[in-house]
Amino acid sequence: MSLRNDEQTEKGAVVGKVDSHLSSPVQEEIIQVQTQKPFTTLSAIGIGYGVTNTAVGLLLVLGTGIPMGGSPVIFWGFLAMAAVGLATATTLSELISAIPHPGGQYIWVHKIAPERYRRGLSYATAMISWIAAIAIGASGNLAVPVNAFTIVTLLNPNFVYQRWMGFVVFQLINIVTCFGACFEYFLPKISKALLLVNVLSVSAIIITLFATAKTHTSAKDFFEVVNVSGWPNGVAFLIGLNGSNWCFSCLDVATHLAEEIPSPSTNIPKALIWTIVIAFSSGLLMILAVLVNIGPINTPDYSGLTVLHHITGSKAAAIGLWVPVLFLVFASVWSIQTWQSRLAWSISRESGFPLHRHFSKIFPAPFYTPIWSLIGSAVGTALFGCLYLASELAFNSLIATGILLQYASYSIPTILV
User: Fold this and answer.
1) Which of 263, 267, 348, 399 lies in disulfide reach of 359, CB 3.0 to 4.6 Å?
2) Confidence of residue 11 (pLDDT cuts 50, 70, 90)
């Protein structure tokens, strides 16, 4: 993208003009470019893995994977999706190294696509990317209250969860994490701290499960398919992959930090590959800690907290392990807020949104962030929460499209190369 820098700028941003052939259909559109570069490779990994959150995510999806075939579905499904995740990260690394830009997928499409289809494909990719980010953010927002109330159910089996309870907590989390993502200076510091907390928490959970397990799974049971879903084994395996797929999603997060990190063409690919390395290592250890120690479990409920309770044999221990899981999911929503806002900000710089003149602004000190894009994305997430209150089925259907849309946004530039 060619820019003509204006020397009379605010401290946190540079005003420039965009070549209409390379980006915006509006000629000579004034944009703001982020010149604050507080992120490093490590803090980019913190943001990226903070959203992917593989080891923690696997605990959240046990209830959907185990009934589809037992341990083999979880184990082999994880390895399969790890391979897909590595392929995705490698592809994104190649693209961002060649064309480093916070817009990511839609900018790559605009650069690569034939001129006749450039604008249409680029805009479609931009909208697909942003809607996917909103959908995944909504799923993270809801995962916290739904799994938090399982603690109440464990302590009080007569408790009945109501959707309005999840809705209220959903919106509170959305507001708190939106505010927390407003300050550019603190984002890399928080992301590095959360990466450390994540590694330590996951390590503590794995060690505790091995140390306190009352039963163990035999080799025969570990590889035996136990499908209680009612679906044929092949179909059940594919359905069971959804959980592991979710745990390797959102890999493009780091690419949208291209203007907030030095040497993005080299540092972001490093962050992407290291995200996969950490995700695979921690995820594999977590899977083995659960599947090796779960033994026979006579309950239709395979939720994460129930499995932890079954392995440790203690409600207190299970809750003690579950609380950091909830905190890390909450922290992932903060990372998702950053991701969503950078996409909305980049798209708005190309006049892609209504109110784009506001959404494209970077606020001055102490923020140095696109506050209106952050708020606009949070409003989109809040609307998804209202849909959950109206219909859980409709909400789940839309959320399920989030990962599909994300892969679609990766596929378009990949096919065009």
Assistant:
1) 348
2) very low
Contact 297, 311 (CB under 8 A): no
Closest CA to 408 of 234, 252, 268: 252
Residue 354's pLDDT band, with cuts at 50, 70 and 90, is: confident
What pLDDT digit, counting tens, does each position of 226-245 carry?
888 888 888 989 888 888 88
- Please determine, for residue 33, whether its predicted confidence score (pLDDT) is greater than 60: no
Would you say residue 202 has pLDDT above 90?
A: yes
Per-residue pLDDT of 356-392, as tens digits, reads 888 888 887 777 888 999 999 999 999 999 989 888 8
Model confidence, pTM: 0.84
CA-derived radius of gyration, the chain:
22
Q: For 32, phi and psi rounded to 5 degrees?
A: -115, 135
Contacts of range 198-203, beta carbons closer than 8 Å, 24 or more positions apart: 198/49, 198/50, 198/53, 198/55, 198/56, 198/328, 198/331, 199/278, 199/282, 201/56, 201/324, 201/325, 201/327, 201/328, 202/55, 202/56, 202/282, 202/285, 202/286
Question: What is the Cα–Cα distance from 37 to 225, expressed in whole angstroms?
Answer: 50
Residues composing the chain: 417
Contact indicator for 103, 303 with CB cutoff of 8 Å: no
